[in-house]
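Posting for a labmate who doesn't have an account.
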Amino acid sequence: FGNYARIEDSTLDESSATYGGAVYLDAWGAVIKGSIITECSATYSGGAIYVAGGGTNIIDSDFELCRAEGTTYTRGGGAIFISGPDTHISNSDFNDNHVSSNNACGGTIYIEGERTIIDASYFNESYAGEGGIIYIIGEQAVIDSSTFANSSSRSYGGAISIHGHNATIRDSIFENVQSTNSYGGAIFIDGADTNILTSSFY
């Protein structure tokens, strides 16, 4: 507990917990930079990291083989679960993260909060009940210059599911992503004033 926590140039592996397999932060302004987190798991949410607080920054970090069991649509985030506004995830790689339950959301990332920005990141091999890779509840989400590959959801959004207005997705690549039983093979958005710009779908 405590604001402005910082994890930098660290390696975390093979950890488990009920929430936040490697790290649980009840904090604003947390920074995770230049770190590697692998093979971590959570019973409910945040296979690697769980943050309750806004202004989280995750930069130049790698997440691999992390999972959350989930169990319901309010739980998930195979690698990351964040409840709070103004999250920024940048220049990070995510490989083979998932949620186990068909009802859980966000195979790699689950965010509840406004003004999320995810840019210059790579996502590969992720799956969930909804939002095969990313699940966001919040207005003004921005996904920029990122790649989403080889992932799926059971219901909405094989790669991304966003519930909120004024979402922007631009300069991104979607390759071999699918929704197996519902809507939005690559992207599902429940909200007005969405912009999808200069992105490629294969």
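Reply:
Got it, the structure tokens are right above this. The radius of gyration is 15 Å.
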